[in-house]
Amino acid sequence: MTDEAQSRYALSFTSGGLLAREGVSVAAIYLESHDWQATRVRVVDGNLLQARTTSSLGRVSRETVQRLAALGDDEIELLVEGSPSEQHHLMWAAACRRYVLIGDFAEEVLRERFLLMRPTLDVEDFDRFITGKSLWHPELEGLKSSTRQKLRQTLFRMLREAGLYTDAGHIIPAVISGRVTEVLDRRTPSDLRFFPMVTPFTSSGDQVER
Known about the structure:
Helix 2 crosses helix 3 (about 35-45). The chain is globular and about 45 Å long. It is an all-alpha fold. It starts with a helix and ends in a 26-residue tail after the last helix. It has helices at about 5, 20-35, 35-45, 55-70, 75-80, 85-100, 100-115, 125-135, 140, 145-160, 180-185. It has 2 domains: about 15-70, no CATH class; about 70-200, fold of a uncharacterized protein from magnetospirillum magneticum. The longest helix has 17 residues, at about 145-160. This is DUF1819 family protein.
């Protein structure tokens, strides 16, 4: 794969929203074998996601597995045993890792607006983000208006399902549990950057670098 191909944004996240329910179900199956291919085969063969059509089952199971594969096994275990809030936060982090476009939006728009005390998010914010990124990502420049709208609708739906955004357009500060904070903060840079939250401070009062 060329560097140019690697830098292209993947835009196939319109298959569903946050997929939290599906993620927890598939994660539990994965922990029995620690094999993603075998997990997907079992999910599809048994229609364990209770999809109405074969095509829908294939699409949603593939999307769910791809997002979960972005998490480590310790995060998968926490996803299965965690509270609904923890599950939603982990699935949001998984989506941000799987799709660089979502991660960039979360860090550069969602969190930035929260830190600047501009706690609202609307269609224009998304459109400005896409327009700006299209300078480096020609795959965005050629998007049909209907495709751009679908991407925006799906992303905002995911934000709502993750508990980070209201129907009225307000950003909800993330209150992340200690154990989710611990696993997300192990990465460099920290994956807490995907959430609308104030950067933690050390006991000495110095701001932690993210």
